[in-house]
Amino acid sequence: MKDVTLTPEEVLAWPHDADLLNSRPWHVDWSGTRLADLERLVEERMPPRCAFHTSGSTGPPRPWEMRPEQMLAEVLALGDVLAAGGGIDAVVAFAPPRHRYGAHCSVLLPAALGVPAWVRPRSMGALPPLRGRVLVVGIPSTFAILRHRLAWLEAAAAVTVLHSSATLPAAAGALEDEAALAAPGADLTVVELLGSTESGAVATRRRGDDLWTLLPGVSFAGPREETAGPEERLVVRSPWLARAPGSAEDRVVHRLDDVVERHGPDRLRLVARAGRFVKVNGVRHHLDEVAARFGAQLRREVACIGVVDPDVGEHFELYVVEPTAGLVDIGDDLRRAIDVVGVHPRRVRLVTELVTSSTGKVVSGQTYFREERQ
Amino acid sequence: MSTTRSALWTEVRDHVETEAGVLTWIQSDAEGEAGGTSVAFEDLDSFTFIQLLLSVEAAFDVELLEELGDFRGTTFDDVTDFVVAQVERSRGEAAARS
Lengths: 374, 98
Hints:
Chain A is 27% helix and 30% strand. By secondary structure, chain A is of the alpha/beta class.
């Protein structure tokens, strides 16, 4: 299937969930667009407030809003970090523009870098024949795809794969190992991006590094919190925080779910995630709320367990108490429930009872995320 | 449908359904699989669908993601039709080159 070639004006036309940007592979060339032109285009083509929805709440979703100037400032800062050490010649983007990560990194980041971009919604479309320094805006399945496209990696001089805001799948390491063996000419780097819909981009690190570095413009919000140990909740000051639902005021400080150790003025080690949150495809879900909604739909006892899947990274499994343990076909009930709840478990496990620990937690391989120490 | 195409179609269909059963999401702790619960195309989330296509690519030596924009199917039979069309096209191109 051939790419549809879009103009910068078409690409910046809001909303970002339009079919034009999400239903087929497309290409745009930003190399002739200077920063001043981009700033003017953003002001002309985008609304004064751009809405992004979070998930995992029991109530109706309410949008977090950003000003387009904030979005542009965010991708300019991120672009500077990614282009440090040699620049970027082209972008191939798999993150769907309808989500915040894709709206920023598949749509606006190539514009900020001033390079051509090939966007691949739902992973469709060929990898363009490129030679140079290529940035791949990745989602979990991107690593699986690139493991089947090692010749493409080798043909490009240097490829950086960006992955956002959830546990990196083990497939990322497998890709690096396989590329080293089968595509020795490939210069492959994986960069992780920490952030959320509410906070925007906060910090980056290269795969294998222990510490994350705050993006230029982002800082720790105050002195270290008084805690018993070196760990504290991550609170940042940032120029691109989203505006809270219903609020008319910009915010300057945001408290994330992440528990960190600080290392100097702009570096941190990610220690754990506070609360029972998982990030699935970049969207944060509260496991207890998701379980309550599945329980109401299925009219059965259920539990949601956070897992780290080797292919997709961070996800959750749904345990459903079904006394016959699979002898009854509850597939249709499950499909209806998934449709209503709006999030797909990585696995559904039918169990005869929920086994709980002495503290009342459901026992499985893993019930709580902790970043593996390097 | 020619005998050759029919055999290929059956081979691809078997691979698709078997692989979907391995990849998909309903499992029981009784037998390690979900007894009477059947697997349908809509049970594949977007990631699992990509995994399924990559598995078919490896098994039948064909590239599928490149043509995925044309796929509008909703059943395993539709996936099989799509795969068979790509395999035949790929084999035809290879024969024309040789």
